[in-house]
Design brief:
Structural class: alpha+beta
Number of domains: 3
Oligomer: single chain
Strand content: 25-35%
Radius of gyration: 23 Å
Number of strands: 17
Distance between the termini: 70 Å
CATH superfamily of the largest domain: Glutaredoxin
CATH class of the largest domain: Alpha Beta
Strand order of the largest sheet: 4-5-1-8-9
CATH topology of the largest domain: Glutaredoxin
Length: 374
């Protein structure tokens, strides 16, 4: 029997480093329970779609690997299955039964939540079975009530923390396996950061585990470094009345931008195209740009969309003609410990953070800028 368990993951999207010299090749055999044209395929934790070619009852996938291994997500109707693939040619025999995707044979690939053939997940599953039962039993009949009730939410956080921590000793047994790195990123880090971001000791445990207990080659990947930066940003965020981080970046048009040059004020507005309140406050920043000259104030939008193309249309439609930076790898937002959107930060002409606010606070922000710059 195969046990399947998925966390609901919201928020953090992590791009991967590309190794163009490595490619993947997957052959998938399907029977008459599957209509090939209704299949879809994605790699890099569901972020990058893959085109395929089919001949008779065989589907063939090829493409560039994002790192030494990656996930292949196969979707059909309402079902999905997730496998790990590498540069070794893989083959899968797939069929559809009981509203689920199933496989008869696997070669050079691994189903990430399989307790029969995936020895790593089997060991994790068995070791933390009591914590898993506690977590699932807690959610029975609650839907989203646990997020609206503070007492229930605190219980949920503790149960989730117990579940995530219980996986670490098993992952530590296999520090050089890509599966350990994948599981840590996607089944420990991803669900944790959304609701456990205030638990400093817990975040420090995860940070130390990444740096000290997994193979160093994972930390050197863009994904590993990005997670390390995010955890560091939580542990050591830029705070009020302290020096602001300094960044040399490019805006969305390729121009070099210095954040923060001393000598004038800097306003950073962290936003995304999917954030309704972010879009609502854009006319306010247009007005600020017209009020305060460029030699006194730089207004910089720091976009946190998944892809730069997601924000390009909004920037054009809303005439957002102040400086816009796409936060590739979340380096800026991680350093500022951004937890919600929109967030606005003001840095004074000496490089000190003097204002930080989550949500819309236009009246107080304008009053501050008026007092400092007019």
């Amino acid at each position: 029997m195969t046990h399947r368990y998925f966390f609901l993951i919201i928020g953090l999207i992590i791009p991967l480093e590309t190794y163009s010299q490595k490619t993947f090749s997957v052959n998938i055999q399907v029977n008459n329970t599957i209509q090939k044209d209704s299949l879809s395929f994605f790699v890099d934790d569901g972020q990058r779609p893959v085109t395929f070619h089919s001949v008779n009852n065989e589907v063939r996938l090829t493409g560039e690997l994002a790192t030494e291994a990656t996930t292949l997500t196969i979707r059909y109707k309402q079902a999905a299955t997730i496998l790990l693939i590498s540069d070794k040619p893989a083959s899968i025999s797939l069929y559809y039964k009981d509203n689920d995707l199933n496989y008869a044979k696997l070669s050079n690939t691994l189903y990430v939540f399989d307790t029969i053939y995936n020895k790593y997940y089997r060991e994790i599953y068995r070791y933390r079975l009591p914590e898993l039962h506690d977590y699932l039993n807690f959610w029975k009949g609650k839907d989203n009530d646990a997020y609206r009730n503070d007492s229930l939410f605190n219980i949920n956080k503790q149960l989730l923390k117990n579940l995530c921590l219980k996986a670490l000793p098993i992952l530590k047994k296999y520090p050089d396996k890509y599966y350990s790195f994948w599981f840590f990123c996607n089944q420990v880090i991803m669900p944790s950061l959304n609701i456990l971001i205030q638990h400093t000791a817990y975040v420090r445990t995860l940070y130390n585990f990444l740096r000290n207990d997994l193979d160093k080659r994972f930390l050197k990947t863009e994904k590993g470094q990005m997670i390390a930066d995010q955890l560091q940003g939580i542990l050591h965020p830029a705070i009020l009345m302290h020096p602001a981080p300094v960044f040399a970046v490019k805006d969305i048009y390729g121009n070099n931008i210095q954040l923060n040059p001393t000598g004038k004020y800097l306003l950073l507005n962290f936003w995304a195209s999917w954030c309704g309140p972010c879009i609502v406050e854009m006319p306010f920043y247009q007005a600020l740009q017209q009020t305060f000259p460029a030699n006194k104030l730089d207004i910089v939008g720091v976009n946190m969309d998944r892809n730069m193309s997601d924000c390009a249309k909004i920037i054009s439609d809303k005439d957002m003609n102040w400086i816009q930076v796409f936060d590739q790898g979340r380096k800026i937002s991680n350093s500022y410990g951004i937890k919600a959107l929109p967030t606005t930060v003001v840095v004074d002409d000496k490089g000190i953070i003097i204002y930080r606010k989550e949500g819309i606070d236009t009246s107080n922000l304008r009053a501050l800028l008026n007092s400092k710059l007019l």
